[in-house]
Amino acid sequence: xxxxxxxxxxxxxxxxxxxxxxxxxxxxxxxxxxxxxxxxxxxxxxxxxxxxxxxxxxxxxxxxxxxxxxxxxxxxxxxxxxxxxxxxxxxxxxxxxxxxxxxxxxxxxxxxxxxxxxxxxxxxxxxxxxxxxxxxxxxxxxxxxxxxxxxxxxxxxxxxxxxxxxxxxxxxxxxxxxxxxxxxxxxxxxxxxxxxxxxxxxxxxxxxxxxxxxxxxxxxxxxxxxxxxxxxxxxxxxxxxxxxxxxxxxxxxxxxxxxxxxxxxxxxxxxxxxxxxxxxxxxxxxxxxxxxxxxxxxxxxxxxxxxxxxxxxxxxxxxxxxxxxxxxxxxxxxxxxxxxxxxxxxxxxxx
Length: 351
Fold this sequence. Notes:
The chain is mostly beta strands and 351 residues long. The chain has helices at residues 5-20, 29-32, 46-50, 68-73, 289-292, and strands spanning 54-57, 75-79, 82-83, 110-113, 141-149, 152-164, 167-169, 172-174, 177-189, 192-200, 203-208, 214-215, 218-223, 230-231, 235-238, 252-255, 259-261, 267-273, 278-281, 311-312, 315-316, 345-346. The relative contact order is 0.19.
């Protein structure tokens, strides 16, 4: 049966729209057929985009991926709990590294919440990803490419959250802090993914690319409820012993398939030159100052006399915020950080 050209064009357009909005592609299938970026990131190898991880947020997550600039806008830079005069007003992600002029080359500078965190300021909640996995109006990821030469390239996918809710141990919530940086790193050889690192509480786990769960080419990660430690599997994870992920224990994280997040859809893009420890933005929208800032992206640990603080056997409810991407060993020898802990590269999704 023949069809009028205008009608055919209309039906085709409707079909494309339906597919785009996921009506014909339940679950994760929508992500397999479309690039994580709508604009090509010049200077970034295509495989860094093609293999960008997808992250499942826990079904009971309360603190979602967050906008990096919102962290600056809702905080004051402090050294020893005293606001520093940054001389540039207002601070933003482009000039944030001016804070390195203060407090031990910036290392003692803390981006401190203007509002009392015990009042649960809304900006700490972050942004819930939409149906496509994008955090709208929030750039919550920094993607950094380090080309080691001889075909070896590391791509870091840095995930930012405005707040970290710690674990509950014997009825005490411990390890809360403003600001949270977690990451995956994929090591490529001649454009082919070899190994994947999942950061967890100062250390983490490494797997062969073949071993990890994937959607198409893209590795899957699971962000732990509250703490945002990044795991390769869903379920309960005890992290009492570094680099050992047991299903039960004293200090547990929980992961599940709640909301899917596609970090590469709202990301800044950089390359990193190891010899000079320098960053280069691959477009004018990716601010450099934030990458060079050496301080902490949250409050300094509250004193024991602070009524908000809880001291349980030398462990505290509120601890200091984290350092940023520049302090995450971007020029590693192995896929694991060089921290003295044995680097185990697992070829199956075991503990």
